[in-house]
Design brief:
The protein contains seven helices and six strands; from the N terminus they run E-E-E-E-E-H-E-H-H-H-H-H-H. With 182 residues, it is of the alpha+beta class. The protein folds into two domains: 69 residues, no CATH class; 89 residues, no CATH class.
């Protein structure tokens, strides 16, 4: 159910029902009402969106448009939060200049290497456990895939011994010049 969070439409007046799940109120279009084999009233319904708690309007999903068309659509402006990227930008530049970014991508691949680099930047900036990594990604990084603490745990668990050793054996870094292998 892909919600269009920037779009709000008036709540349909008839033929809908709502269900509360946690803090959210989901809205369903009732397609058919009938009694089941036990004689209990029931219905067939499809989700059409989520009710906005602030103004009572509907945040539609794709199925809403199949049943109601475009109608009176109100596009609400959304603003990106201000991001404080100075420290992370600086650390990323240093890691790139040192060749660490490329060294991570060789054994881990592009996606996992970038995730490991984000974890490195977080540790350098915060020096903490990965508990608030997602908040850090949302507020202090730019153009990076949001990365959760659970994702960091999965990443670290997925790195094999051979991949770690391949990283440590990497000699393409310009700062390794003159260093003899031990």
């Amino acid at each position: 159910m892909a919600l269009h969070v920037k779009v709000k439409v008036p709540m349909p007046t008839g033929g809908v029902t709502t269900r509360v799940s946690g803090p959210y109120q989901y809205v369903y279009k009732v397609l058919k009402c009938y009694r089941n084999s036990q004689g209990q009233p029931t219905n067939e319904r499809v989700p059409i969106g989520k009710r906005d708690r602030e103004n009572g309007m509907l945040i539609p999903n794709n199925r809403y448009y199949a049943y109601y068309g475009d109608g009176d659509v109100e596009v609400t402006p959304t603003y990106e939060p201000v991001r404080s990227i100075g420290g992370t930008f600086f650390i990323r530049c240093i890691l790139k200049d040192l060749g660490i970014a490329a060294m991570l991508e060789k054994p881990l691949g592009k996606r996992r290497g970038q995730a490991a680099l984000t974890a490195c930047v977080y540790m350098a900036c915060r020096g903490k456990v990965m508990e608030h990594l997602l908040d850090f990604c949302r507020g202090y990084t730019l153009n990076e895939t949001p990365f959760t603490s659970q994702g960091a745990s999965s990443l670290f668990a997925s790195i094999t011994h051979d991949e770690r050793m391949a990283f440590f054996r990497e000699r393409d870094c310009p700062y390794w010049v003159g260093v003899q292998p031990g």
